[in-house]
Amino acid sequence: MFTIKAAAELTTVPPTTLRAWERRYGIARAQRTESGYRLYDEEAIEEIRVMQGLLERGWAAKQAAEEVVRQRGLQRLTSTGSLPSDNGLLVAARSLDERAMASVLDEGFASGSFEYVIDGWLTPALHRLGTAWRSGDLDISAEHFTSAAIMRRLAAAYEAAGSPSGGPRILVGLPAGGQHEIPSLAFATCLRRLGRNAIYLGGDLPASSWVNAVTAQPPAEAVVMSVTVPSDIPGAIEAMALLRAVRPNLFIAVGGAQAPHVPQPTLLLEGTIPESALRISEFLRTKASNHHAHHTNR
């Protein structure tokens, strides 16, 4: 770990610039000591060097930062580790054993990057959990117990990812009646880890509340709605209709098993949660670049 002074000496980037990059773009995020001092790991140092190299080649600061974040996302998608078996999750769930559940989740989330764990371990484990519940092999109390434990872990990861102090807001949540929050919160966390200003709104959000959230100041750039089960579809359709009436050009992405049944989103999300988060980040980056080029050439 390196202090900000040591990081500046290693990279020849002044401390004031390092602070500005972190604040404005989410680049080279530092860990903090109990006293509030910044500490940079090897990954952060590498991001500083990549950013510096792009600037030296003539890139604008904003575009350079977006490229650093893009490379970070690709690296995390392939950050491999030895993933644990999902059998331990079922055993802890059946016994309602908090200590065992904590141990299983500790092992799972320590086995690789957040994105790799979500894709390679947590999603398959949750699928197996759901199958056990539907077959009657797992009581609903055990399913709720496990979901609550996972949500606490995801909430901690969401907070730890932080959020840029600026940048367009992306609202993430579920439509009216939607209760399956784990994929949606994991998605919002992935977006934050890509440097996006993602705000998680939670489940069971009425259409009128989606409109209120989108029109709050500053206005949101995008909405990402999770449509997981058939009962989520009517609420999603209603919310989309109201949002389109208020903001016709609003970017609306829809993901989840039932997403194909929601008509005409701006983007239909398919693939894994981390891949979809990276896809949205890339889509919005391209859109912003095109918009900037259009106004520059006018």
Brief synopsis:
The chain is of the alpha/beta class and 298 residues long. The chain is built from 12 helices and 8 strands. It has helices at residues 4-11, 15-25, 42-56, 61-77, 87-95, 98-109, 114-134, 140-161, 182-193, 207-215, 233-246, 273-296, and strands spanning 2-3, 31-32, 38-40, 169-175, 197-205, 220-226, 251-255, 267-268.
Compile the SSE list and pairings:
Blueprint: E1 2-3, H1 4-11, H2 15-25, E2 31-32, E3 38-40, H3 42-56, H4 61-77, H5 87-95, H6 98-109, H7 114-134, H8 140-161, E4 169-175, H9 182-193, E5 197-205, H10 207-215, E6 220-226, H11 233-246, E7 251-255, E8 267-268, H12 273-296
Parallel strand pairs: 4-5, 4-6, 6-7, 7-8
Antiparallel strand pairs: 1-3, 2-3
Helix pairs in contact: 3-4, 4-12, 5-6, 5-8, 6-8, 8-9, 9-12, 10-11
Description:
This protein has three domains: 2-59, Multidrug-efflux Transporter Regulator, Chain: A, Domain 2 (Orthogonal Bundle); 87-159, Orthogonal Bundle (Methyltransferase, Methionine Synthase (B12-binding Domains), Chain A, domain 1); 161-296, 3-Layer(aba) Sandwich (Rossmann fold), CATH 3.40.50. It is 58% helix and 12% strand. The protein is built from twelve helices and eight strands. It has helices at 4-11, 15-25, 42-56, 61-77, 87-95, 98-109, 114-134, 140-161, 182-193, 207-215, 233-246, 273-296, and strands at residues 2-3, 31-32, 38-40, 169-175, 197-205, 220-226, 251-255, 267-268. It has a five-stranded parallel sheet, with helices on both faces. Strand 6, helix 11 (233-246) and strand 7 form a beta-alpha-beta unit. Helix 5 packs antiparallel against helix 6 (98-109), helix 8 (140-161) runs parallel beside helix 9 and helix 9 packs across helix 12 (273-296). The longest helix has 24 residues, at 273-296.
